[in-house]
Every structure is written in C-alpha cells, then in structure tokens.
Amino acid sequence: MARIERAAREVVESGRFLIGLGGEHSVSAPLVRAVRKRHPHLGVLQLDAHADLREEFEGSRDNHACVMHRIFDDGSPIAQVGIAR
Q: Which helix (H) or strand (E) holds 44?
C-alpha cells in the first residue's frame, strides 16, 4: 500500500491527473490518500453493490471489503450509490 501511495503521489505532485482503473478495490485507499495530500477537501463517490465498510476482513484491514472504511478513516467524506442490501 505504501508503494502504491508513493507512486500515486509522484503523479499528483507533478500536476498530472491521477486515474486508477481496475477491479481490486483495496488499491483505492492509497490512491485517495495521495490525492488528498494535494486536495485536502477531496470527497469520494463510490459506485458499487457492496459498501466495503468492514473494519477488518479475513485478518486484514487493507482488504477489498474494508477500503471505504479506510478512506473514511483517512478523513474523506464518502457518498455511496448502488449498495445492495
């Protein structure tokens, strides 16, 4: 996670626009952390069927099922759309 955040921070600090595409949700937290360092009032819109708000899953806090909890813990306001019950 630290390596991902460092790489993303290099992109953001250079003034370029960071885009993260892919299916592994856990990498979203370090990407958001990197962007928040430059844009501290960043909010996150999540479009997903799952809330991903678990504190921990399968012994890991850096898990796909915990990513939105980590983003919220880091101080970003979140809005979630499409969450299934």
A: strand 44-47
Q: pLDDT of 16-52, one tens digit each?
A: 999 998 778 999 999 999 999 999 999 999 999 999 9
Nearest alpha-carbon partner for 82 in 62, 68, 63, 61 = 68
Name the maximum alpha-carbon separation found in the chain: 41
Q: Is 68 helix (H, G, I), strand (E, B) or coil?
A: helix
Q: Can you state the angle between helices 28-38 and 2-13, rounded to 10 degrees?
A: 40
Model pTM score: 0.91
**Of 1, 80, 82, 4, which is closest to residue 45 (Cα–Cα)?**
80
Taking the C-alpha atoms of residue 66 and residue 56, their distance in angstroms, rounded to an integer, is 6
Residue type, 61: R
